[in-house]
Amino acid sequence: MAQTGARPWARSDEKHRAILRAAREVFLSNGYLGTNMDLIASRSGVSKQTVYTHFGSKEALFVEIVGSMTGDAGDRVHHERPELGDDAELEAYLRAFAERQLRIVTEPELLQLRRLVIGEVGRFPELAKVLYERGPQRAIGELTAMFEVLDERGLLTGAEPAAAAEWFNWLVMAAPLNRAMMLGDAAVPGDDELRRHVADAVRIFLTAFGP
Amino acid sequence: MAQTGARPWARSDEKHRAILRAAREVFLSNGYLGTNMDLIASRSGVSKQTVYTHFGSKEALFVEIVGSMTGDAGDRVHHERPELGDDAELEAYLRAFAERQLRIVTEPELLQLRRLVIGEVGRFPELAKVLYERGPQRAIGELTAMFEVLDERGLLTGAEPAAAAEWFNWLVMAAPLNRAMMLGDAAVPGDDELRRHVADAVRIFLTAFGP
DNA sequence: ACGTCATCATACTGGACAGTCTAGTCTGAC
DNA sequence: GTCAGACTAGACTGTCCAGTATGATGACGT
């Protein structure tokens, strides 16, 4: 309201983001059908008409929200992966990767997004496909690339890099994620438990696939 | 309509089951909010009033459906577990257990139930808790009992039976289940792939925890 | 000064739907 | 034959809600 000055699009742009923010909250907590467009309008401090001029329909707004959240989360997990230095650091390297990924994926907002998208597979199969691609599939892809390097250095035995990547991914993610899906955000491991879980997962992985 | 003969409750009982059957279909394919009580009535060949005299409300009917499905599925997975004979059969024994469990859990109806319940965690947290207890938790409990026996025979090393049970469970279930949640029933592995997957999971498990 | 464009508040349309009510039918029991 | 209880078709109530329409305000560029 105050510094709307220089740029003519600024006003519109702010509203746009306010709508997205409000819509994200409301969709995440009420689901697709449970969401009321009037509520989104009032929460974003904008008239209903403005919501419709910006986004066209409830469905389009929903798709936009889910698409942008999945993309952002993927980027946060995967930006700037460090290189493995000394071979002896392999275990610590895998732990660091896993801890970071698990911490992001178990954020309440992302858990809720996952629940929402899974619940709407029937209505929006494309969204779930996109979430799978930008989530687990992308993670497994990154891991595959890492493991190809390890493979060349002789640090990986007994499986193709791609297969090893999938096992690693689910060893780390499966238990916390599946618990959280059903038992709610309170079931997400705290920091200590998370570290212990990841350490065990990495140990099991290396017993099966390590040098 | 024809052979309603001897038992006075038969008529009512048939309707009751017809309603449950129809409601299961409709809830599973449309979700809770997306479900229309008129449709359930007409699909079960019953008047709307009858639906309400039998079940009281939409919510009560939903809870009934989900509760009964989770119980039934759990019973089907766990009824009559065979004993392990010769120690040498350990690998085959674990494979058989895992294959059976995975086959049941990946049935389209149960996958859809899982999606539905996950999507409704916000509205019905109790249902999700029950599904977790009668699903993964129960499976892990059974495995724990099995592994305690193995432990006594010296066939299990390096972890508590309960921890080993959890790792085993998710090694087997995680990848297929998570793919199916998001990619739809078409992503469920066929028989060959399922067998290969289970064989690999058991091998990894035994490498880490076996004798 | 004037037009344009984003926005506003608010009313409205049209349809969906949970749950109730009515008035009457069918069936099996006594 | 009559009664009770299960059932039926369908109308009805009240509410909710996506999306549109209206008419006004205020800021900007020219």
Distance between the termini of chain A: 62 Å
The main sheet of chain A comes to: none
**Could you say how many structural domains of chain A there are in total?**
2
Q: pLDDT average of chain A, as an integer?
A: 90
| Alpha plus pi helix count of chain A | 9
- Structural class of the helix and strand makeup of chain A? mainly alpha
CATH-assigned fold name of the largest domain in chain A:
Tetracycline Repressor, domain 2
Total beta-strand segments of chain A = 0
CATH class of the largest domain in chain A: Mainly Alpha
Q: What would you report as the Rg of chain A, rounded to the nearest angstrom?
A: 21 Å
Strand residue content of chain A: under 5%
Identify the overall geometry of chain A: elongated
**Low-confidence region ranges of chain A:** 1-10
| Oligomerization state | homodimer
- Full CATH superfamily name of the largest domain in chain A: Tetracycline Repressor, domain 2
CATH architecture of the largest domain in chain A: Orthogonal Bundle
The percent of residues in helical segments of chain A reads: over 70%
Topology as H/E string of chain A?
A: HHHHHHHHH
Largest interface: chains, residues each? A-B, 41 and 41 residues
